[in-house]
Write a structure and sequence with these properties.
The complex is a heterodimer. By secondary structure, chain A is mostly helical. In chain A, 54% of the residues lie in helices and 6% in strands. Chain A contains 5 helices and 2 strands, in the order βαααααβ. In chain B, α3 runs antiparallel to α4. The longest helix of chain B has 30 residues. The two termini of chain B are 19 Å apart. The model of chain B has no long low-confidence stretch (mean pLDDT 94). The chains are: A mainly alpha, B mainly alpha. At the A-B interface, α3 of A face α3 and α4 of B.
Chain lengths: 71, 144
C-alpha cells in the first residue's frame, strides 16, 4: 500500500554519538518521539523543513544526514 | 501511541459499534418480517449516537491513562499526524464517493427509502472504518 522510501538517514548513529535521547531531539525539532522513531526507522519521510531542522540540531548539512541511492 | 492514533482506534471501534447496534435494532424491529417495513430512522439515530458516545468515552479514558503515563505527550501532535490524517481522509472520501454512487443507483431503481438510507449509513460507517484502518496502518507500518 505504501511505497518504501529510498531515502536513508544517519540520525540514530549521530544521535547516539552525541548522547542525545530520542525525546530530547524530538522536543528540539518540535515533533513527537514517535515521529522521530518513525523517521529513524525510515517509516516516515520528513518534510524538507523538518529535515533541515534535524540536520541543524546536529550542526551538519542535510546531505550529511540524509542519503539517497546514487549519492 | 500518539493522541491521533488513539483517536483512529476509537473511531474504528465506534464505527463497529454503530453498525452493530443498527443491525441489532433493525433486525429486532423486523421480527423476521420485511426489513423495509422497519421504522429505520430512530434506530439509525440511536446507533449513531451510541457509536459517537463509545468513541468519545474510549478517547477520554485512553487519554487519561496516557496522561498518567506521560502527561507532556498525551495530547501532542505534529506534521506526521497531519499527513496520516490526510492519507486516511483520501481513503474515506473514495469510499464515500462509491456509497454516493450506490445511493444514486438505488434511487434510479426506485428502491425503498429504507434501503437508500441504509446504504448511505453503511457507506459512512464503512468509510470511517476503512479510513481508520488506513490511518492505523500508516502509523504502524509507515507513511513515506
Amino acid at each position: 500500500m505504501v511505497k518504501p522510501t529510498r531515502v536513508t538517514n544517519g540520525i540514530r548513529s549521530r544521535r547516539e554519538e552525541a548522547g542525545i535521547t530520542q525525546a530530547d531531539l524530538a522536543r528540539r525539532v518540535g515533533v513527537t518521539r514517535q515521529t522521530l522513531i518513525a523517521i529513524e526507522q525510515g517509516k516516515y519521510s520528513p518534510t524538507l523543513e523538518l529535515a533541515f531542522q534535524i540536520a541543524r540540531a546536529f550542526e551538519v548539512g542535510i546531505d550529511d544526514l540524509f542519503q539517497y541511492p546514487g549519492d | 501511541m500518539v493522541y491521533h492514533e488513539r483517536g483512529a482506534w476509537a473511531g474504528l471501534i465506534g464505527a463497529i459499534a454503530t453498525v452493530s447496534i443498527y443491525a441489532v435494532l433493525v433486525l429486532t424491529g423486523a421480527r423476521g418480517g420485511e426489513l423495509a417495513a422497519v421504522d429505520w430512522f430512530p434506530p439509525m439515530l440511536w446507533s449513531i449516537g451510541c457509536g459517537v458516545g463509545v468513541s468519545i468515552v474510549i478517547t477520554i479514558l485512553w487519554g487519561i491513562v496516557a496522561g498518567i503515563r506521560d502527561r507532556a505527550s498525551a495530547t501532542a501532535s505534529d506534521i506526521r499526524d497531519r499527513d496520516v490524517a490526510r492519507f486516511g481522509g483520501r481513503v474515506e472520501h473514495a469510499l464515500l464517493g462509491l456509497a454516493g454512487i450506490g445511493v444514486i443507483v438505488l434511487c434510479a431503481l426506485g428502491a425503498d427509502v429504507f434501503w437508500i438510507a441504509s446504504a448511505m449509513f453503511l457507506g459512512f460507517a464503512v468509510s470511517t472504518f476503512v479510513g481508520g484502518i488506513a490511518r492505523i496502518v500508516a502509523y504502524r507500518r509507515g507513511l513515506v
